[in-house]
Amino acid sequence: MSTVLQVLSLRIKTVAGWQDPYDLDDPVVAIVGPVDTGKSSLVDCIAFALGKDIDAFRGAVHTHLREVELRIRVSSGIFILRRARKTSSYIEVFDAAGTSVNHFPVKPHEERQLISSWLLERLGLDELFSSVLLPGGKSLDFPTALLPYCYLTQSDIDRYIIQATRHDAVRLVTLKLLFNLTTPEHERLNSTIRNVDNDIERRRRRAQLIESFLSESQMTNLGAVTDEINRLRQAELEAASRLGSWKNDGRAASQFADHERQRVAVGRQTVSELEGSLDKLRRQQEKAEEKVEACQEALAALTNLEERPPKLHVVLPRCPACEGELTDRIPEPGRCYICGQLLAGRIQAAERKLLGMAYANAQTEASNLLIAVKDAEERAQSARMTLKKLLQEADDRVGDAVTPYVDAISAASSDLARIRGELASLERISDSHNRLRVQFEDIAEMEEQQKDRRRQALEAGQLESAESVLDALNAIFRRIVEGIKLPHATGRARLDPDTFMPLVDEQQFPQRGGGARSAVSIAYSLTLLTYALENELAKLPALLIIDSPQKNFGANEDDKKLAHRVYERFLDYTSELKDVKDGQFYRPFQLIIVDNDLHADIRRRIKVHQFTHEDGFIRGLANPHRAPDQSVALAIHDPGDTPELDFGEPEL
C-alpha cells in the first residue's frame, strides 16, 4: 500500500468564530503575499493539527487564533483533525462524514493511543517506526521523525538538512526505514545489539579494573593465592590432627581423678545440707527472740496500767442523768460507785500471770535455739574446711596429671584457628577470582550471542540494495542541481553513502553560502520526494511543505531567479508524471510553497492563495498586524470562552 498524505483544506476559528476554509486540494499550492500577512502561520497551523507543538504563533495569529481544523487524505481515506489551543494536549479526529473517531492525546496519557501512533497507522508506518528504540527508551514518532521530512520550516531551511545535527541518528534511521534500507526486525536487533554492546563494554571495564587490582600484588595474585590455600589446607589437616591427639591424651590423663571429684561432690553436698539446717535454726531463733520481746513489751504496758492511780472526783449526790440519789448507794469493793466497773489494779492480775508464763517459755525456747544455732555453725564450718581441703587435694592431684595437656591443647587450638582465619581470607580472594572468571565467561557468551544477532540482523536487513537506492538518489539529486543551475557549482552532486547528506562539489551543506544552502536543502527534499514518486516501495509520504525559501535565498535578482528555477524544475517534473502511461505506478503528491512572490509563469501552473496586508490569513481584520489594544488582546484566555465539549460538525 502506497503512503499517501495530502492536505485538502484548512480552516481556523478566531474570537469571531469559524472562518471559511482554505482549499488546498491540489498537487502544487502556493501561499503568496508580503511579509506579516500570515503565510507561515498557515503552514504552522497544518503542523499544529498534525501534532506538532507550536509554542507561539506569529503576530495577530497568536492573538486571535483559537482552534484549527485540518482535512487530510491518507491511504485509508479522508479524515478531519481538530485541535484547540486551550485543549492542545488532545486532537479530535472525525471521519469524512463528520462522525467523531476518537479524542487522541498528543503526549502519553493513561495508556491511550497517541495521535502520532494513529497517524502512523493510517500511513502504514506504525509497526515500522515502533521497531526503533531510541536512547532513553523512546520510539520514532510522527511529529519529530516523519514531519521534518514533509515540512521545511522557514527558520531551518538554510541551517539543517531535515533536522538539527543532534537528531542525526533519528534522521538517518527514519530515511532508511522509509526507503527500505532497513527492516523492523533489523532495527529491533540493532537496538538490542547496541544495548548489549554497551552492557558488554561496561562489564569488561569493571572486570578489567578488578583483574588489574587483583594482579598487582603477590598477596592477591591468583597463582600465589592458590598455592597458599593448598599449603594452608594441608597445615589445617595437620593442626586438627594434633589437637585431636592432645585432647585424647588429656581425657585419658584425667580419668584417675574421678574418685577425687566424687569426694569433692560429697563434701559440697554435706556443706550444702548443713548450711540449709543452719539457716532454718537461725530463722526459728529470730522468731523466738521476737516472741520474748513481745512478752516483755506486754508486761511493761500492764505494769504501767496498774501503777496509774485512780482519779478521784467529788462524790456526786445525784445522778447526772436522772437526778436520782447516789449518797445511799453502797458499791461493791474495788468497783466504781457510778458505773460499777472494776477499778485499776484489780482486773490485770490474771493477765500478768498468763504473760509471765508466756515470757518464761519464750526465753527457754530462745536459749535452746541459740545453743542449737552455735552447734550448727560449728558443724557447717567444719564441713567447709573439709571441702576446702578436698578441693586443694583434687587440684593438686588432677593438675599434676592434666595441666601439661591443657597448655598443649590451647596452643593447638590457637594454631588451628589462625590457619582457618588465613584460609577464610584467601578463599574470599579466590572467590573474587572465580567471580571474575565467571564474568569474563559471561562476556564471552554475550559476545557469541552478539555474533548470532549480527548475523540475524544482516539476514533481516534491507529490502533494497543500498547501492541501487543511492545511485537512484544521486541521479535525481544531480539532475535537480543541474536543472536549477546552482551558482558557483560545477554540477558534481551526490549524497554521502554513510550519512545520506548532500555534497555539491564535495562541499558539505554548512560550507556553502546562505542562499546556496537553501537551494541545496530544497533540492535535497525534492530529491527524496521525486524518489518516492518513482519508487513503488518507498514509504515516504509524497507531501512537501516549503516555508518562505525566498527569504533565505536573498532579495537580489540572481537569488530570485534561483528560486524560480527550483519551482520550475519541479513543476516540469510533475508535468511529466501526468503523461505516464495507464497502469504505471503513480502516487498522489502535494507540494505546498510559502513565498513572498512567484513568477507569473509559475502562478499560471499551480493553485495560489494570495494574501495582502488588508486580507491576510485571518480574514476581516483591519490592519491585523498592528499592536493589539486591550480590548482585542483577549487571545485564548477570554473569560467568556469555555472549553467546548461538543465539537460541532466539522467542515466537509
Structure in a nutshell:
The chain has helices at residues 39-49, 59-64, 115-122, 126-130, 142-150, 168-178, 184-216, 222-253, 258-306, 349-459, 466-484, 514-534, 549-553, 557-578, 600-603, and strands spanning 5-14, 17-18, 22-23, 28-32, 67-74, 77-84, 90-95, 100-105, 133-134, 138-139, 151-152, 493-495, 502-504, 507-508, 543-547, 590-595, 607-610. With 652 residues, the chain is α+β, with helices and mostly antiparallel strands. 27% of the residues are buried.
Structural overview:
- This protein is α+β, with helices and mostly antiparallel strands.
- The protein has helices spanning 39-49, 59-64, 115-122, 126-130, 142-150, 168-178, 184-216, 222-253, 258-306, 349-459, 466-484, 514-534, 549-553, 557-578, 600-603, and strands at residues 5-14, 17-18, 22-23, 28-32, 67-74, 77-84, 90-95, 100-105, 133-134, 138-139, 151-152, 493-495, 502-504, 507-508, 543-547, 590-595, 607-610.
- Strands 1, 2, 3, 5, 6, 7 and 8 form a seven-stranded antiparallel β-sheet that branches. Strands 11-15-16-4-17 form a five-stranded parallel β-sheet, with helices on both faces. The chain has a three-stranded antiparallel β-sheet with strand order 12-13-14.
- α8 (222-253) packs antiparallel against α10 (349-459) and α12 (514-534) runs parallel beside α14 (557-578).
- The chain is elongated, with a radius of gyration of 57 Å.
- The two termini are 25 Å apart.
